[in-house]
Amino acid sequence: NMATSSNYWEDLRKQARQLENELDLKLVSFSKLCTSYSSSSNWDQQKRDIRSDSGSTQDNVLIAMTTELEQLLANLTAVNDKMAEYTNTPGVSSHNAALMHTLQRHRDILQDYTHEFHKTKSNFFSLREREDLLGSVHRDIDSSGVNNRKTELFLKEHEHLRNIAMATKENITFQRGMLKSIQTRVTTLANRFPAINSLIQKINLRKRRDSLILGGVIGVCTILLLLYTFH
């Protein structure tokens, strides 16, 4: 009957107003959070790292609000559809100006809220994508800087060890020349004075010992160079 039909219409209007009021409040909060998110885009690198490692609480809140607003908009759309169906119900005049005007007003409110939501949501995801990109760029720059410093230190140390090795090589070459010259002279003396043979043997023993020591130094330098090369 008409009374029941009228009550149904008023119930739909009541549901629509409740959803619209809830949407209005939550859209304001959503917009404020997104504005706060935008103002935080100038964080320093340490805060970016914290956000990247542990996740942002602000991100989680905004994503939760996005889901909630989408559900509220879907509910309000469903109510509007029921109101439109009501105006087409037999016995309800489609020319009832008051009903059509009310339905159109609720449709306009739904359209405005939907537009505002999608605009704010788009800004939020754009800001988050930009922040993630900036954080990634800063981490790459810092990582590159660390690698460059490590490379510079390695090259300096490598050059230092190479200079030691070259100096050791030159020293060995010089000592070999001296030993060869001494050996030649001693051999000449030994040919003239057989009693010097024992002295020659002692000199040969010392020469072998010096060679072993120098060889050990070369080996240590070589190992150090290999360690720094493959570190």
UniProtKB/TrEMBL annotation:
Domain of life: Eukaryota
Subcellular location: Golgi apparatus membrane
Main location: Golgi
Pfam families with a match to the protein in the record: V-SNARE_C
Keywords from the named record: ER-Golgi transport, Golgi apparatus, Membrane, Protein transport, Transmembrane, Transmembrane helix, Transport
GO annotation, biological process: endoplasmic reticulum to Golgi vesicle-mediated transport; inter-Golgi cisterna vesicle-mediated transport; protein transport; vesicle fusion
Transmembrane annotation, as ranges: 212-230
Membrane topology: Single-pass type IV membrane protein
GO molecular function, one term: SNAP receptor activity
CC annotations in GO: cis-Golgi network; Golgi medial cisterna; Golgi membrane; SNARE complex
InterPro entries attached to this UniProt entry: Golgi_SNAP_su1
Functional note: Involved in transport from the ER to the Golgi apparatus as well as in intra-Golgi transport. It belongs to a super-family of proteins called t-SNAREs or soluble NSF (N-ethylmaleimide-sensitive factor) attachment protein receptor. May play a protective role against hydrogen peroxide induced cytotoxicity under glutathione depleted conditions in neuronal cells by regulating the intracellular ROS levels via inhibition of p38 MAPK (MAPK11, MAPK12, MAPK13 and MAPK14). Participates in docking and fusion stage of ER to cis-Golgi transport.
Description of how the protein assembles with itself and partners: Component of several multiprotein Golgi SNARE complexes.
Entry's family note: Belongs to the GOSR1 family.
Name of protein: Golgi SNAP receptor complex member 1
Annotated organism of origin: Seriola lalandi dorsalis
